[in-house]
Amino acid sequence: MNVSTLVKKISQLIKSAILPITKIKPIVLILIFASLMLSGCVNYDLGVNFNSTNNGQLVQHIQLSEKITIFSSDYISEWLKTLENRARKLSGSVERVSPSEVIVKIPFTSAKELQKKFTEFYQNSTTKEEDRSQISNITANLIAEDTNFFLFSRNHLVYDLDLRSLGMFTTKADNSLLNLEFSLNAPWGIKNINNNENILQPERHGNQLIWQLKPGAINHVEVVFWLPNFLGIGTLIIIGFIWLGIYLRYTVLPTPKTQTPGVHL
Question: What is the pTM of this model?
Answer without folding.
Answer: 0.71
